[in-house]
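Handout, page 2. Input:
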Amino acid sequence: MTPSAPAPPSVRPGGVPGRRAPALRGGRAPRQGSVLTPYALVSPFFLCFAVFSLFPLAFTGYVSLTGWNTRREGSEATFVGLENYRHLVADPDAWNALRNTIGIGMLSAVPQLLLALWIAHLLNGRLRGRLFVRMGVLVPYITSVASVAIIFNGLFARDFGPVNWLLGLAGCDPVDWHSGLLPSWTAVSVMVIWRWTGYNALIYLAAMQAIPPELYEAAAIDGAGGWRQFLHITIPSLRPTIIFTVIVSTIGSMQLFGEPYLFDLTRNANGGAAREYQTFVLYIYQQFWFNGRYGYASALAWALFLIIVVIVLVNLVLARRVRGED
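Output:
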Protein backbone atom coordinates (compact mmCIF):
# COMPACT_ATOMS: atom_id res chain seq x y z
CA MET A 1 0.00 0.00 0.00
CA THR A 2 1.44 3.34 -1.00
CA PRO A 3 1.30 6.08 1.66
CA SER A 4 -1.13 8.88 0.93
CA ALA A 5 0.36 12.25 -0.05
CA PRO A 6 0.12 15.03 2.52
CA ALA A 7 -2.68 17.48 2.02
CA PRO A 8 -1.58 20.81 0.49
CA PRO A 9 -1.47 23.76 2.89
CA SER A 10 -4.58 25.83 2.99
CA VAL A 11 -4.20 29.12 1.27
CA ARG A 12 -6.60 32.03 1.72
CA PRO A 13 -7.16 34.45 -1.10
CA GLY A 14 -4.26 36.85 -1.23
CA GLY A 15 -2.26 34.78 1.28
CA VAL A 16 1.12 33.04 1.12
CA PRO A 17 1.29 29.22 1.01
CA GLY A 18 2.38 27.72 4.30
CA ARG A 19 1.70 30.88 6.28
CA ARG A 20 -1.41 31.47 8.33
CA ALA A 21 -3.16 34.75 7.76
CA PRO A 22 -2.81 37.08 10.74
CA ALA A 23 -5.80 37.18 12.97
CA LEU A 24 -7.41 40.50 13.63
CA ARG A 25 -7.75 41.76 17.19
CA GLY A 26 -10.96 40.40 18.64
CA GLY A 27 -11.47 38.37 15.49
CA ARG A 28 -13.29 41.26 13.84
CA ALA A 29 -12.43 43.51 10.98
CA PRO A 30 -11.99 47.20 11.82
CA ARG A 31 -15.14 49.16 11.32
CA GLN A 32 -15.26 52.47 9.51
CA GLY A 33 -16.38 54.20 12.71
CA SER A 34 -13.27 53.15 14.64
CA VAL A 35 -11.05 54.66 11.94
CA LEU A 36 -12.84 58.00 12.11
CA THR A 37 -12.97 58.15 15.91
CA PRO A 38 -9.62 60.04 16.40
CA TYR A 39 -10.70 62.66 13.86
CA ALA A 40 -14.04 63.04 15.59
CA LEU A 41 -12.32 63.59 18.94
CA VAL A 42 -10.07 66.40 17.66
CA SER A 43 -12.67 67.96 15.40
CA PRO A 44 -14.27 70.19 18.11
CA PHE A 45 -11.01 72.11 18.50
CA PHE A 46 -10.64 72.74 14.78
CA LEU A 47 -14.31 73.60 14.50
CA CYS A 48 -14.06 76.17 17.30
CA PHE A 49 -10.80 77.49 15.85
CA ALA A 50 -12.41 77.95 12.45
CA VAL A 51 -15.54 79.62 13.85
CA PHE A 52 -13.92 81.88 16.46
CA SER A 53 -10.51 82.55 14.88
CA LEU A 54 -10.27 81.92 11.14
CA PHE A 55 -13.68 83.29 10.22
CA PRO A 56 -13.33 86.54 12.25
CA LEU A 57 -9.84 87.01 10.80
CA ALA A 58 -11.06 86.57 7.24
CA PHE A 59 -14.19 88.67 7.78
CA THR A 60 -12.14 91.47 9.36
CA GLY A 61 -9.86 91.40 6.33
CA TYR A 62 -12.88 91.78 4.07
CA VAL A 63 -14.36 94.63 6.13
CA SER A 64 -11.00 96.43 6.04
CA LEU A 65 -11.44 96.74 2.28
CA THR A 66 -14.80 98.49 2.62
CA GLY A 67 -15.82 101.97 3.72
CA TRP A 68 -18.28 100.66 6.32
CA ASN A 69 -19.27 103.50 8.63
CA THR A 70 -22.34 103.41 10.85
CA ARG A 71 -22.88 107.12 10.20
CA ARG A 72 -23.29 106.53 6.45
CA GLU A 73 -26.18 104.31 5.44
CA GLY A 74 -25.31 101.64 2.88
CA SER A 75 -21.57 102.11 3.34
CA GLU A 76 -21.08 98.46 4.30
CA ALA A 77 -21.33 97.54 0.62
CA THR A 78 -18.87 100.22 -0.51
CA PHE A 79 -15.61 98.64 -1.66
CA VAL A 80 -12.67 101.02 -1.22
CA GLY A 81 -9.73 98.63 -1.70
CA LEU A 82 -6.60 99.68 0.18
CA GLU A 83 -7.86 103.17 0.97
CA ASN A 84 -8.16 102.40 4.70
CA TYR A 85 -4.56 101.23 4.79
CA ARG A 86 -3.39 104.38 3.00
CA HIS A 87 -5.23 106.45 5.56
CA LEU A 88 -3.64 104.40 8.34
CA VAL A 89 -0.12 105.14 7.11
CA ALA A 90 -0.87 108.87 7.12
CA ASP A 91 -2.78 108.88 10.42
CA PRO A 92 -0.72 110.57 13.19
CA ASP A 93 -3.01 109.20 15.92
CA ALA A 94 -2.31 105.63 14.77
CA TRP A 95 1.46 106.22 14.89
CA ASN A 96 1.07 107.85 18.31
CA ALA A 97 -0.84 104.80 19.55
CA LEU A 98 1.85 102.49 18.18
CA ARG A 99 4.56 104.52 19.91
CA ASN A 100 2.67 104.41 23.20
CA THR A 101 2.17 100.65 22.86
CA ILE A 102 5.85 99.95 22.26
CA GLY A 103 6.95 102.37 24.98
CA ILE A 104 4.62 100.99 27.65
CA GLY A 105 5.45 97.46 26.53
CA MET A 106 9.18 97.99 26.94
CA LEU A 107 8.72 99.82 30.23
CA SER A 108 6.61 96.99 31.66
CA ALA A 109 7.92 93.78 30.06
CA VAL A 110 11.63 94.13 30.90
CA PRO A 111 11.26 94.86 34.65
CA GLN A 112 8.43 92.36 34.84
CA LEU A 113 10.49 89.45 33.52
CA LEU A 114 13.56 90.36 35.58
CA LEU A 115 11.47 90.62 38.75
CA ALA A 116 9.71 87.34 37.94
CA LEU A 117 13.08 85.62 37.51
CA TRP A 118 14.28 86.91 40.88
CA ILE A 119 11.06 85.85 42.66
CA ALA A 120 11.23 82.39 41.09
CA HIS A 121 14.82 82.04 42.28
CA LEU A 122 13.76 82.90 45.82
CA LEU A 123 10.82 80.49 45.73
CA ASN A 124 13.07 77.73 44.41
CA GLY A 125 15.31 77.95 47.46
CA ARG A 126 14.70 77.00 51.06
CA LEU A 127 12.00 79.36 52.20
CA ARG A 128 9.51 79.01 55.00
CA GLY A 129 5.92 78.91 53.87
CA ARG A 130 6.86 78.38 50.25
CA LEU A 131 3.42 77.01 49.35
CA PHE A 132 1.68 80.05 50.81
CA VAL A 133 4.05 82.42 49.02
CA ARG A 134 3.61 80.58 45.71
CA MET A 135 -0.14 80.93 46.03
CA GLY A 136 0.25 84.59 46.99
CA VAL A 137 2.25 85.59 43.92
CA LEU A 138 -0.62 84.40 41.73
CA VAL A 139 -3.24 86.57 43.46
CA PRO A 140 -2.61 89.65 41.23
CA TYR A 141 -3.08 87.51 38.13
CA ILE A 142 -6.50 86.19 39.18
CA THR A 143 -7.66 89.62 40.36
CA SER A 144 -10.05 91.44 38.06
CA VAL A 145 -8.39 94.13 35.99
CA ALA A 146 -11.24 96.49 36.92
CA SER A 147 -10.42 96.09 40.60
CA VAL A 148 -6.74 96.63 39.87
CA ALA A 149 -7.53 99.84 37.98
CA ILE A 150 -9.65 101.21 40.84
CA ILE A 151 -6.85 100.57 43.32
CA PHE A 152 -4.12 102.08 41.17
CA ASN A 153 -6.24 105.09 40.24
CA GLY A 154 -6.40 105.80 43.95
CA LEU A 155 -2.68 105.20 44.46
CA PHE A 156 -1.73 107.53 41.61
CA ALA A 157 -4.30 110.22 42.36
CA ARG A 158 -2.85 113.70 41.92
CA ASP A 159 -4.14 115.38 45.08
CA PHE A 160 -4.55 112.67 47.72
CA GLY A 161 -2.72 109.67 46.27
CA PRO A 162 -0.28 107.72 48.49
CA VAL A 163 2.38 107.82 45.76
CA ASN A 164 2.43 111.61 45.66
CA TRP A 165 2.33 111.67 49.46
CA LEU A 166 5.53 109.60 49.55
CA LEU A 167 7.09 111.87 46.94
CA GLY A 168 6.17 114.85 49.12
CA LEU A 169 8.00 113.29 52.07
CA ALA A 170 11.06 113.09 49.83
CA GLY A 171 10.74 116.77 48.95
CA CYS A 172 9.34 116.25 45.44
CA ASP A 173 6.42 118.08 43.89
CA PRO A 174 3.20 116.12 43.24
CA VAL A 175 2.97 114.46 39.83
CA ASP A 176 -0.12 114.31 37.66
CA TRP A 177 0.10 110.65 36.69
CA HIS A 178 -2.85 110.92 34.28
CA SER A 179 -1.15 113.47 32.05
CA GLY A 180 2.33 113.71 30.63
CA LEU A 181 4.06 111.01 28.64
CA LEU A 182 6.50 109.50 31.12
CA PRO A 183 4.27 109.72 34.25
CA SER A 184 1.32 108.06 32.52
CA TRP A 185 3.51 105.39 30.93
CA THR A 186 5.03 104.67 34.33
CA ALA A 187 1.66 104.37 36.07
CA VAL A 188 0.19 102.02 33.44
CA SER A 189 3.42 99.97 33.39
CA VAL A 190 3.31 99.53 37.16
CA MET A 191 -0.21 98.13 36.82
CA VAL A 192 0.94 95.65 34.19
CA ILE A 193 4.01 94.65 36.21
CA TRP A 194 1.98 94.09 39.36
CA ARG A 195 -0.56 91.94 37.51
CA TRP A 196 1.70 89.69 35.41
CA THR A 197 4.90 89.24 37.42
CA GLY A 198 3.55 86.39 39.52
CA TYR A 199 2.33 84.51 36.45
CA ASN A 200 5.77 84.60 34.84
CA ALA A 201 7.44 83.78 38.15
CA LEU A 202 5.52 80.50 38.40
CA ILE A 203 6.54 79.62 34.83
CA TYR A 204 10.19 80.22 35.71
CA LEU A 205 9.79 78.28 38.95
CA ALA A 206 8.43 75.23 37.13
CA ALA A 207 11.41 75.35 34.75
CA MET A 208 13.89 75.74 37.63
CA GLN A 209 12.54 72.66 39.37
CA ALA A 210 13.28 70.62 36.23
CA ILE A 211 17.01 71.45 36.42
CA PRO A 212 18.97 68.42 37.74
CA PRO A 213 20.24 69.14 41.29
CA GLU A 214 23.48 67.30 40.47
CA LEU A 215 24.58 70.32 38.47
CA TYR A 216 24.37 72.57 41.51
CA GLU A 217 26.08 69.97 43.70
CA ALA A 218 28.99 69.64 41.27
CA ALA A 219 29.28 73.42 41.01
CA ALA A 220 29.30 73.76 44.80
CA ILE A 221 32.07 71.17 45.05
CA ASP A 222 34.09 73.19 42.52
CA GLY A 223 33.69 76.24 44.74
CA ALA A 224 31.03 78.13 42.77
CA GLY A 225 28.86 80.40 44.89
CA GLY A 226 25.16 81.03 44.58
CA TRP A 227 25.55 83.94 42.16
CA ARG A 228 27.86 82.01 39.81
CA GLN A 229 25.53 79.01 39.92
CA PHE A 230 22.64 81.26 38.99
CA LEU A 231 24.52 82.80 36.05
CA HIS A 232 26.18 79.67 34.67
CA ILE A 233 23.60 76.98 35.48
CA THR A 234 20.16 78.48 36.07
CA ILE A 235 20.10 81.08 33.30
CA PRO A 236 21.41 78.77 30.52
CA SER A 237 18.98 76.05 31.58
CA LEU A 238 16.09 78.52 31.51
CA ARG A 239 16.91 79.89 28.06
CA PRO A 240 14.00 78.19 26.22
CA THR A 241 11.60 79.30 28.96
CA ILE A 242 12.94 82.85 28.88
CA ILE A 243 12.46 82.97 25.10
CA PHE A 244 8.89 81.74 25.55
CA THR A 245 8.06 84.39 28.17
CA VAL A 246 9.66 87.12 26.07
CA ILE A 247 7.51 86.21 23.06
CA VAL A 248 4.32 85.90 25.12
CA SER A 249 5.02 89.17 26.94
CA THR A 250 5.67 90.90 23.63
CA ILE A 251 2.35 89.72 22.23
CA GLY A 252 0.56 90.73 25.43
CA SER A 253 2.17 94.18 25.37
CA MET A 254 1.03 94.80 21.81
CA GLN A 255 -2.53 93.81 22.80
CA LEU A 256 -2.64 95.97 25.93
CA PHE A 257 -6.13 97.36 26.47
CA GLY A 258 -7.70 96.93 29.90
CA GLU A 259 -5.15 98.82 31.99
CA PRO A 260 -4.95 102.03 29.90
CA TYR A 261 -8.69 102.07 29.24
CA LEU A 262 -9.63 101.83 32.92
CA PHE A 263 -6.84 104.16 34.01
CA ASP A 264 -8.45 106.90 31.88
CA LEU A 265 -11.08 108.44 34.16
CA THR A 266 -12.99 109.99 31.24
CA ARG A 267 -13.73 106.57 29.68
CA ASN A 268 -13.68 108.05 26.18
CA ALA A 269 -10.82 105.77 25.03
CA ASN A 270 -8.56 108.76 24.36
CA GLY A 271 -5.90 107.54 26.77
CA GLY A 272 -5.36 110.89 28.39
CA ALA A 273 -6.12 114.47 27.39
CA ALA A 274 -3.42 114.41 24.71
CA ARG A 275 -3.55 110.65 24.01
CA GLU A 276 -0.45 110.13 26.17
CA TYR A 277 -1.17 106.46 26.91
CA GLN A 278 -3.61 105.49 24.19
CA THR A 279 -2.44 102.08 23.00
CA PHE A 280 -3.05 100.62 19.56
CA VAL A 281 -5.86 98.33 20.69
CA LEU A 282 -7.46 101.22 22.57
CA TYR A 283 -7.34 103.26 19.37
CA ILE A 284 -9.01 100.40 17.47
CA TYR A 285 -11.71 100.28 20.13
CA GLN A 286 -12.29 104.01 19.85
CA GLN A 287 -12.59 103.94 16.07
CA PHE A 288 -14.94 100.95 16.14
CA TRP A 289 -17.32 101.71 19.02
CA PHE A 290 -17.14 105.47 19.43
CA ASN A 291 -16.67 106.59 15.83
CA GLY A 292 -18.43 103.69 14.07
CA ARG A 293 -15.67 103.38 11.46
CA TYR A 294 -15.83 99.61 11.04
CA GLY A 295 -13.74 99.51 7.88
CA TYR A 296 -10.92 101.62 9.25
CA ALA A 297 -10.93 99.80 12.60
CA SER A 298 -10.64 96.47 10.75
CA ALA A 299 -7.65 97.80 8.82
CA LEU A 300 -6.06 98.82 12.12
CA ALA A 301 -6.69 95.34 13.51
CA TRP A 302 -5.06 93.68 10.52
CA ALA A 303 -2.09 96.04 10.76
CA LEU A 304 -1.66 95.09 14.41
CA PHE A 305 -1.83 91.40 13.49
CA LEU A 306 0.95 91.83 10.92
CA ILE A 307 3.08 93.85 13.35
CA ILE A 308 2.80 91.10 15.97
CA VAL A 309 3.75 88.45 13.40
CA VAL A 310 6.85 90.44 12.39
CA ILE A 311 7.91 90.98 16.01
CA VAL A 312 7.49 87.29 16.84
CA LEU A 313 9.51 86.27 13.77
CA VAL A 314 12.30 88.66 14.78
CA ASN A 315 12.32 87.17 18.28
CA LEU A 316 12.53 83.65 16.85
CA VAL A 317 15.43 84.59 14.56
CA LEU A 318 17.33 86.18 17.46
CA ALA A 319 16.65 83.13 19.62
CA ARG A 320 18.03 80.79 16.95
CA ARG A 321 21.15 82.91 16.62
CA VAL A 322 21.69 82.76 20.37
CA ARG A 323 21.31 78.98 20.29
CA GLY A 324 23.69 78.75 17.34
CA GLU A 325 26.35 80.70 19.19
CA ASP A 326 26.09 78.25 22.07
